[in-house]
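Q: How would the structure tokens look for this protein?
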Amino acid sequence: MTTPPARIKQLWIYPIKSCAGMALDECVLTDTGLDLDRAWMVVDDQGKFVTQRQLPRMALIQPSFKGSDMVLRAPGMLALHVSIDAVEQPTQVQVWKDHVPAYDMGNVAAQWFTDFLSKDAQGLPVVQSKRYRLVRFDPDHRRLASQEWTGDIEAFNQFSDGFPLLVLSQASVDALNQKLAAGGHTPVGAERFRPNILIEGYSAHDEDRALQLQISEPNTSVALRLVKPCTRCAIPNIDPATALSHPAVVDALRGYRKDERVLGGITFGMNAIVLSGVDQVLRVGQTVA
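A: Here is the predicted structure in token form.
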């Protein structure tokens, strides 16, 4: 029996770093990853990025696109409309060790994020003095991925942790869920791991061993290089539907996913860079070689 080819099962973008993702049927590939992925970010009053690590409630902020607006919805909040094509004043922000130019999205957006993120995962007010602002990556800035992993290739990203794309296989998620079930825990979806490209047709963790992904179909020729195992923090423990955290997921990974390539860190999925195919369209169902 012939083995079916591997295919793209899902495409995801995360317009605002650490907020909910959007599953798409197709998306344009840019040199910084999928179009509008991590184009926005939430920062504190010092201009430093915040994520679900500090604010799990960010998982409940759901973006969608309508015309020229990004529409944000969250429990207990009126919808916030953010223009895709307009920004306000320039600013400087920090994402990990990088200090990069960005554009502030204005006081209305800042108040919306401050109001929502000033509550805990159950929606109860918390005592805190920080205020939060939404910023947009400056597209004229070139934020370079680590050449420790990309070698002589210059790869760029916006507000992602460090690389343009994250690739994961459904079989890897299925293998994890078998371990969770054996421990009496509820299975989890791939969205816990925030991939951009989810592949079906691989065996578990084939993405670890692949050097390159080639997507070649009529009118499409894309090459991606898988360069670095994705080291995992506690975010996969956070249920994206409730923003509540339970240690079962990372505990299960710790039992079998320590990776010497990153000094024994727990890894799941592979970071990837774009070799060719900028401005082409990736679609669910495309064959991956």
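The two ends are 19 Å apart (CA to CA).

The chain has one domain: 6-288.

Upvote if useful.
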